[in-house]
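Input record (one chain):
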Amino acid sequence: MAAKELDVKGLHCPLPILRTRALLDKMAEGEEVIVYATDPASIIDFKHFCNTTDHVLLAHETRGEVFVYHIRRGASAA
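The corresponding structure, as predicted from the sequence alone:
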């Protein structure tokens, strides 16, 4: 199954996390989402979000001014 994509470029904390959480809540365990953000603080936010939920931050990278996060939905929507 292909990963879903979520574009939150131009949004600042807490909106990228809130939009990601809303999408993950609609997904099944094990599904993945790729999030595109431009908020420089988003790496801190996404690491914290995944560390405090069952979701897994599989990878993150920077493409120019865009931060890309690969997240797998965990067992619960904590």
